[in-house]
Design goal:
Blueprint (H helix, E strand, L loop, with lengths): L1 E6 L2 E4 L4 E9 L6 E7 L6 E7 L4 E3 L10 E3 L4 E6 L8 E9 L3 E4 L3 E6 L1
Parallel strand pairs: 2-11
Antiparallel strand pairs: 1-3, 3-8, 4-5, 4-9, 5-6, 7-8, 9-10, 9-11
Length: 116
Amino acid sequence: QVQLVESGGGLVQAGGSLRLSCAASGIIDSINAMGWYRQAPGKQRELVAHIISGGISTYADSVKGRFTIFRDHAKNTMYLPMNSLKPEDTAVYYCNAIAPGDGISWGQGTQVTVSY
């Protein structure tokens, strides 16, 4: 099974930057895809960015050009540098991992708050 721990959230002013991290442990060799999701108060959880084995990534239209998803396999960690943050980016950010035979694992979430 895969365990995930997010970090890097916080309070930042609009236009600022943060970098989220998602540290993976457990049976990580089986992971073939990872992603970042977010959930704002009163809204459904939505996909932010997704990366599959080989490094192919996809992004929500709302974050294209501002966020970047990548994995550092040596550190067993996935990152999400976020630039030009907007108040509408405020949410709890979650990472997940998909491993065949093990299903989908989720982290506990990290709060990102962007002030005006």
